Amino acid sequence: METYQTAFAALGDPTRREIFTLLVAGPRAVGEIAAELPVSRPAVSQHLKVLKQARLVRVQADGTRRRYSVDHVGVAALRDYLDDVWGQALANFAAVVEEE
């Protein structure tokens, strides 16, 4: 599956979107994320696993803790896809306007 498709599928879950939004503000450990959500730490870990597989987050060891942050490479691939789609939509709109 393409990177952007996996990313969209991962962000299709509202809890994962919320986790991703928290990580946009800065790196956090699982416990820090769980403290802000109505889900357990194991559930947060499972959601982070999906987001990591979709290349939306990355993990880095910080002593005995793991800190999760946004994976800018994966997000850039998603943005490139959206830029292409938006560019095509604008080009199609311009073509229709020019015909009229």
Q: Explain this structure to me?
A:
It contains 5 helices and 3 strands. It has 100 residues and is α+β, with helices and mostly antiparallel strands. Strands 1-3-2 form a 3-stranded antiparallel sheet. A hairpin with a 2-residue loop joins strand 2 and strand 3. Helix 1 packs across helix 5 and helix 2 crosses helix 4.
| Number of beta-strand segments | 3
Structural class: alpha+beta
Mean pLDDT value: 92
**Helix-strand sequence:** HHEHHEEH
Helix percent reads 55-70%
Largest beta sheet: what is the strand line-up?
1-3-2
Low-confidence stretches: none
Largest sheet: 3 strands, antiparallel
Strand content: 5-15%
Estimate the global geometry from the Cα principal axes. elongated
- Total count of helical runs of at least 4 residues: 5
Rg value: 17 Å
- The separation of the N and C termini measures 39 Å
Pfam families: HTH_5
Domain HTH arsR-type: 1-90
Keywords: DNA-binding, Transcription, Transcription regulation
Protein name: Metalloregulator ArsR/SmtB family transcription factor
